[in-house]
Each structure stands twice: as C-alpha cells, then as structure tokens.
Amino acid sequence: MIRWLTQPKRLEVSKYVECYWYLEKDRDADSSIRPKLNPDPAAHLIFTLPKQTYQYSMQRGSFKGKGSHWLYPYCNTIELDHSQSFSCIGVKFKVGALYSLTNIPFTQALLNTVEKISTDLFKGTLSIDEKALLFNAKDNQEQCVDRLDALLLPLLLKFNEDKYSKITKQAIQLLSHKPINELGEILLCSQRTVERSFLKVTGFTLKQCQSMNKLEAILEYLYQREQCDIDWGDIAYQFGFSDQPHLIRYLKQQIDLTPQKYAQQRDFAIDIYGGVESK
C-alpha cells in the first residue's frame, strides 16, 4: 500500500519536483498482482533495491529490469507486475521539468519508456544508497525527505529554463482553469507559440495533458466513493462533460473501460494501494 506522499522541503527542489511517495507490498497482501497506472504527463524517478525486479506492460511493449529507474511520461494505461513483494520510493517531477535538465525536446522516443538510471546522473553529487533511503522511508519519513532533497539538489541546480520551458510552466498553471484557445492571449504571445513550446518541452499537446489531468482527478474522486454511491450523470456535470455519453466515450478512450466496467474492476493503482493526501 502507499505509505506516504509528501512535498520536498527545500524550495529549490520543489521548483521542479511535485512530490515524493513511498509504496510497499508484502508477498501475501490481498490485492491485485497486476494493477494499472493511468496516463501521466509527468516523469517519475523510482528508487528501489538493486536486485528488485520491475515490469511495465505498455502498448509499445514490455519493459523489464532490476533496480532504480526512470518511468518517463506515458499517454496510455500501463499494467504492472506486482506478484512479488517490493518497496520503492518515487520522485514525481513536475510536467516538463526534465526538459530543463538537457534542453533536449521530449520526443516520442522518450515518451512511454522505462530506462535504468544512468551512472552519470548523480556524478559529482551524493552517492545513491537505496537501502538507506528505503529504510528511512519505512521508519523515518522526515529523514527520508531530507535525504532525497540533498540527493536531488545538486542535480536540479543544473536545470536551465529557456523561453520554451518558461512558457510551458506558465501554460501548465493556467491549464486547469482557462480554455486552451485563450492561453496565447493571456501569456502575451501567439497561440501557436504556446502550443509549439508545450509540445517541445513535454512531448504532449495541451489537450492531451489537460485530458490526463482530468482523468487523474476523476479517478481520485471515484476512489473516495463506493460503487453504489456513484452517479455518472453527476460526475459528467462536475468534470465539464456535455453529457454522460461524452464521459463514457472519454473513459473508453483514456483507459479502455466504460464507467460501469471500471467501477466493477477497480484495478488501478489508486484503488489497489489507496490514496493519501499530500502533507
């Protein structure tokens, strides 16, 4: 189950990191061995023991490996293999943050992929001690957060924001409450500039990112309710869909499930491991 989720303590880190989280599962835990992850425009850095195996099944294939790794942004549902016991720490970066580390456009070659952490990533900084990190995550959350901040800070100080990342950051802040076609006017540049900058930095269109954020909000809303308490017509209204059929088409497109089928299965990670409020 997810044990905790919290924000970085240091402002320099929180500029690029959305949150830290800790997840663990015992071998005999009564839960699905193949939970799913909903599409996510943010990258995750996963810390786990060197011999800990992982497997992510996506449309483009299956990624298998051992140890700490990157889970790059992905636009389709992912199925996990959690048949074995495990524990891991996740660093969820803010959408588009990794572009500022390399200034290399987030192309389709990087999206929907899993990659082992490069040995050069933390070169010249603190060495990664996954065992100590995971020990702290289990028994001392505050100390774990301090360790993560100290580990990431030298890396994040190398981040360089160009004009594209600055426009993208502003667009992300507006995306939840402003129409996409008004962003150019609000940001005092052409709409085409906003859209091209966003695609260059994140690998997604504004509409794709907005849609994934909405899906995450819907799944969090549903997690808090029993199946008998779910009113799909009301949900459609609350989340800005024109009608219930529109919501049904949306969920079918995003997670390949109808609302009723999802409510019956409840097999996404938030349903299996639970959710916690950020502290």
Structural write-up:
- The chain is α+β, with helices and mostly antiparallel strands.
- The chain folds into three domains: 2-156, Jelly Rolls (Sandwich), CATH 2.60.120; 163-202; 208-273, Orthogonal Bundle (Arc Repressor Mutant, subunit A), CATH 1.10.10.60.
- It has twelve helices and ten strands.
- The protein has helices spanning 11-14, 99-102, 130-139, 141-156, 163-175, 183-186, 191-202, 206-223, 232-238, 244-255, 259-265, 269-273, and strands at 2-6, 17-25, 36-37, 44-47, 53-58, 61-66, 69-71, 78-80, 86-93, 114-116.
- The strands form two sheets. The chain has a six-stranded antiparallel sheet, covered by helices on one side. Strands 3-8-5-6 form a four-stranded antiparallel sheet, with no helix packed on it.
- Strand 5 (53-58) and strand 6 form a beta hairpin.
- 29% of the residues are buried.
- The model has no long low-confidence stretch (mean pLDDT 90).
